[in-house]
Amino acid sequence: SLLEPEAPAGEEETAPSQYHDGVRDAKRRIILHALERTHGSQQAAAELLGINPTYLSRLMRNLNLR
Question: Is the pTM of this model over 0.90?
Answer without folding.
Answer: no
